[in-house]
What does this fold into?
Amino acid sequence: MSENYDVIVIGAGPAGYHAAIRCAQLGLETACIDKSIGKSGDPAYGGTCLNWGCIPSKALLDASHKFEDAQKHFSEIGINVSGVEVDVAAMMARKDQVVQGLTSGVAGLFKGNGVTDLPGRGKLLAGCQVEYTSHGGEQQILEAEHVILAPGSVPVEIDPAPLTDHLIVDSTGALEFQSVPERLGVIGAGVIGLELGSVWNRLGSEVVLLEALEEFLPMADERIARDSLKLFANQGLDIRLGTRVIGAKVDAGAVLVSYQDGDGEHSLEVDKLIVAVGRRPYTEDLLSPDCGVNLDERGFLCVNDLCATDAPRVYAVGDVVRGPMLAHKGMEEGIMVAERIAGQKPSVNYDCVPSVIYTHPEVAWVGKTEQELKASGDTYNVGTFPFAASGRALAANDTGGMVKILADAESDRVLGVHVVGPQASELIAQAVIAMEFDACAEDLGLTMFAHPTLGEAVHEAALGVAGHAIHMVNRKKR
Ligand code: FAD
Ligand code: AMP
It folds into this structure.
């Protein structure tokens, strides 16, 4: 093993592995250190996203959605099935297989691109030196021209609900249940709580989500959040807002949760409890005191817009720095830093980061919400289009939700696009592209969309900004 590299990356999650591969593509001698171990006992690259986050949760969301469709909705489209059953062990095994395939795929990409993978822990020392400790405990000091820190994040734990082995779990534990709990409690009705709650609700659990805030999904557009709440409640998710959990204890094989709401103190008995109250940056034993990298008051590594830390030639990307904790945001930061190290001048457009909640229907958005535009005093026009009026959504028996587009009143530039509906995660890409190209709502309206597609709802909402969607009655004639 060499001791000198152009670039050492610490962390092989989406932010770190994208950075490492792009550095190697650009001809830089690159090593990537990661401490994660998979279920097989081998190094497992891909970080939270591939091992315990995006991918396993989507494997279970897709599988449970198919089950629910077969059980509840096939008969509506003329398909009668009987004896539909869940095999949780098989579902989990398939999820693990998908994870295994992808994590070993990252190892293959490292090899193919010439990235040296170093399984173990990395610690930044002063002067761009890195202390590498292998899983076997051998230590070595490596030298680098540049260091990229990408150590990611871990679930937040709260004192009222300490984790236990199998009954009170975090998101990682919730991806490993071996049977369907009859009664499931979830603390936090944020993105992760809603996704995991949906999985187990579809598979048959009675799910109660306890959310401290009075407002549902405060980061989403208010109208979309309101419509989503109704759609989720209709699916049987019992979402209790303004409800703060103050205690949880295991009692006779069940979990007794105590919580406070406007009416006082209550308790709830469940078979399992998922704590999904957010994530925090992970920097344990990452930095020597003299390395020159600073943390902010919330524990994130301080960086500028270009992800440079306070230490010369040291960068930080992904969940460990400010901004939304999303895999794709970290990937773009990783690539930007790699290209900047190689002398190119890219930047990340933080105004165009899409957010998605992979429930059914999905919720997705990019840009400003209506409440943000109101608060900043911007003038805007709104176009909306419901999936109930989309030929493709009707044909697919999937008509919940709408598209909402906000455009500047003067310039018509698209300022925000918000979707709750089928395949919102795919539809939002159309909006991101439009906004990256600084499109006006009229540009989207003048673009031809294939018929019949769900994308036509985006087209119609864009036409609606100027008041002339075709498949809606417009009172104003424009
Ligand atoms: P991580 O993925 O956390 O990777 C960091 C890696 O660095 C880890 O392997 C860690 O072990 C390693 N490491 C840390 N410190 C050291 C050290 N000192 N030495 C060596 N190695 C170290 N995001 C989305 O965009 N879409 C989704 O659908 C989505 N779903 C999610 C579902 C769940 C249940 C969860 C928990 C998260 C989800 N996320 C999703 C968030 C997403 O997983 C994170 O935003 C993303 O993984 C962050 O990437 P990262 O590279 O910054 O860090
Ligand atoms: P997110 O950050 O999107 O994963 O959402 C986590 C949610 O958990 C937030 O909306 C918090 O308000 C909520 N939360 C945090 N602590 C508690 C608690 N003790 N009881 C109920 N909800 C909580």
Notes: The first helix runs from residue 14 to 25. DSSP finds 13 helices and 21 strands in the chain. The chain has three domains: 4-154+280-350, 168-277, 361-465. Residues 4-154+280-350 form a domain with the FAD/NAD(P)-binding domain fold (CATH 3.50.50.60).
